[in-house]
Amino acid sequence: GCGNSALSHDLYELGYTDVTSIDFSPACIAAMRARYARCPGLRWAVMDIRALAFPDASFDVVLEKGTLDVLMVEETDPWHVSPQAAAAMRRVLAEVSRVLRPGGCFLSITFAQPHFRKPHYAQEAFGWSLRHAACGDGDAGAFHYFLYVMRKGQPLDPRDVALGRRL
């Protein structure tokens, strides 16, 4: 869900002029279409992340920033995710994998630490490799966030395969 974030427009301004953004809110998408009507390469669609309406292998890059966190918002114990939340995460990630082209890249930006998030991403069925990096300015009081990078068509590290089997 793109929400009302300026990220799509920022990417457009950086030269990425073929950007499709989705959100489940018709009001949000209408507002974003109006706000960025002058940017012809920005497309906006009302869509559910659990059932993407795009054909297989449609995208070179899929980027999510905090959208997957919504699937975990009602979880009270990040060490023991409910079967419902795990299934919802699998469904969304399977859709992302489906719409990625071979060699495509899925980027996920979140506050979710690797020991909580990597088991969800590390599923052999998705057909991608997995890397991550901690990001942040290094100040003692700052929150770190994490960038996860999945590359379609590259194998998972055996240690990540083992993580994925935990779910």
Automatic annotation (TrEMBL):
UniProt keyword annotation of Methyltransferase present: yes
Keyword set, alphabetical order: Methyltransferase, Transferase
Domain Methyltransferase type: 1-107
One Gene Ontology term of the molecular function aspect: S-adenosylmethionine-dependent methyltransferase activity
GO BP annotations listed: methylation
Superkingdom of the organism of origin: Eukaryota
Family as reported in the entry's similarity comment: Belongs to the methyltransferase superfamily.
Protein name: EFMT4 methyltransferase
Naturally occurring in which organism (per UniProt): Helopsaltes ochotensis (Middendorff's grasshopper-warbler)
